[in-house]
Write a structure and sequence with these properties.
about 525 residues, alpha/beta, Toxin ADP-ribosyltransferase, Chain A, domain 1, six-stranded mixed beta sheet, five-stranded parallel beta sheet, 16 strands, globular
């Protein structure tokens, strides 16, 4: 059982908003030369000698996340315990590690802006004492803030394991309550608090971990069956910005108030002759403006007009469609996590409305994924969408009848995927369709292959455009192809590995044929859908 990592956001509380300001400064300020030794000494004074020597000898700033995920729990558990105190002076004593962790997460987040979907859904399983759970219930429908770094996972079943929740018996240990947090994150807004997929850097690579920054604000939407729904989106980030403004205003508007003065007022050591510490406090607002995604991912000149979605070249269309026919999965309220994960991964066009909240669940507007229950519904839907390239998923039982009818009638069906619990029982009839048919018994492998195949379809279109000397269109499709393949690798973590090298080679070739400013425009548009 771990302690509650959340607290209610109280925007009118001076102590709270100054705490938030202190955290912003501590994550932004450059490290002093003595902070490494101060961190080591602080850890030694907290009975951590057995871990400190290893840290002293082997720690490197570029391995911060590896150290965070070490099985020993050091330094992650110790640092999070200190952060949970919300005491700026204490937290400043572990800043040597926190600063590196913040920088590493920021770099990973920036790198992900090219491929990450508009929103992701992650999960966290945790046990609470009855008393802590009752406190948590009081947060319902209120904004809350993480007082620690928050480990989450993209896999619901892993969160269930961490919660100790026995779904079949619906039982928890005595005086402990298992909670599964379902967290929805809009990914491409201005980011003060980065998050990142860290599986590639983790000591435990099968947990599909996404690490969320300390100080991230969520809306506590509701308590639903087996868990709690949290959302971090544009309104929550605006709240983070508003709190920063309020905190700075609380020190007065004079530009003579420096960052160093604020730290001294909190008894936090600072070097007053350092340029950063002598900067006016209001300069932190400029830092905020500089970390917008458009300033991170590109250095596109603001003097030239940026192409919008409506300005795409003729022929560049989002024309793929996934149809999933299954008697059970076709029901609206079943397997929501599966549908959300796949629909979000293949989404390339930005919607005005990203999601709806209905009956305490998240329902994206799945324009690229249609789920159906019967063969007749499926055939009718394919017929309606003959102008699209269709990727068809079916259960094994329906596939036996559906596959021959589809392949004999609809050339628009690019690929068929059988998703079933027992592949061997389908081999006899499926052998006749091996050139168009793939079979899977694990959802992540299915999703990875579907997303990859859609990416390869866009690569084929890019090559056709290139052969017709339509290089702008070709570059768009190559970027879409790369986006989808990167999502396959980073989101689904399949045992399958898909190489980016051929895509990068085609991209380099197309970019060399276009003016630099046009290449920048195309990149900008793709990275902001």
């Amino acid at each position: 059982m771990t302690e509650n990592p959340f607290r209610i956001v109280i925007q009118d509380n001076p102590n709270f908003i100054r705490y938030c300001l202190a955290m912003s400064i501590l994550c932004t300020a450059p490290l002093r030369n003595c902070e490494r030794d101060e961190f080591i000494k602080f850890c030694q004074g907290n009975n951590l000698l057995q871990y400190v020597s290893q840290f002293y000898l082997h720690y490197r700033p570029d391995e911060t996340i590896q150290w965070y995920t070490r099985p020993s729990g050091f330094p992650s558990k110790f640092v999070n315990t200190i952060c949970r105190t919300q005491h700026p002076l204490l937290i400043s004593k572990v800043r040597y590690y926190l600063k590196h962790l913040h920088e590493h997460l920021t770099r990973l987040y920036q790198d992900s802006l090219f491929w990450i979907p508009q929103f992701i859904i992650v999960y966290r399983g945790q046990r609470f004492s009855s008393a802590e759970y009752q406190k948590l219930v009081q947060y319902n429908e209120k904004p809350i803030l993480t007082t620690t770094y928050l480990s989450t996972t993209s896999a619901y079943n892993i969160a269930v394991e961490f919660s100790g929740y026995n779904i079949r018996s619906n039982a928890s240990l005595q005086d402990e309550i298992s909670v599964i947090f379902k967290i929805v994150i809009q990914t491409k807004n201005t980011r003060l608090k980065p998050f990142a997929y860290i599986q590639e850097y983790s000591h435990v690579r099968d947990e599909k971990e996404i690490l969320i920054s300390m100080g991230t604000i969520f809306s506590f939407v509701n308590i639903y069956k087996r868990g709690i729904l949290l959302i971090h989106g544009q309104s929550e980030e605006e709240m983070e910005k508003k709190i920063l403004y309020k905190a700075i205003e609380s020190y007065g508007n004079e530009r003579t108030m420096t960052i160093g003065n604020v730290l001294i007022s909190m008894n936090i050591p600072s070097t007053l002759d350092d340029d950063f510490y002598c900067r006016p406090l209001t300069s932190l607002l400029e830092e905020y403006l500089q970390i917008k995604p458009e300033n991170i991912v590109n250095s596109v000149s603001t003097e030239s007009q940026i192409m919008t979605i409506q300005d795409w070249p003729e022929g560049v269309t989002n024309d793929h469609l996934i149809i999933w026919v299954d008697t059970f999965i076709g029901e609206n309220n079943t397997c929501i996590e599966f549908k959300d994960a796949l629909a979000n991964a293949i989404k390339l066009i930005k919607d005005e409305i990203d999601r709806l909240i209905v009956n305490n669940e998240i329902y994206p507007l799945r324009r690229e994924l249609i789920t159906l229950r019967t063969i007749e519904e499926c055939l009718e839907m394919i017929d309606i969408n003959r102008d699209k390239k269709i990727f068809l998923i079916t259960s094994g039982s329906l596939g036996l009848q559906l596959v021959p009818r589809v392949l004999n009638t609809f050339p628009c069906v690019e690929k068929i995927y059988i998703f079933c619990g027992y592949i061997r029982g389908l081999v006899d009839w499926a052998m006749d369709f091996t050139d168009k048919l793939l079979m899977f018994d694990f959802p992540n492998d299915l999703f990875a292959r579907v997303v990859y195949d859609i990416g390869m379809y866009y690569m084929e279109r890019a090559i056709n455009f290139s052969n017709s000397n339509e290089h702008i269109s070709a570059l768009y499709y190559l970027y879409y192809c790369k986006t989808l393949v990167m999502r396959t690798i980073h989101i689904f973590h399949s045992y399958l590995w898909f190489s980016l090298t051929p895509i990068d080679e085609y991209i380099a070739m197309e970019e060399s044929l276009l003016p630099k400013d046009m290449v920048q425009h195309v990149r900008h548009n793709v990275q902001h859908v």
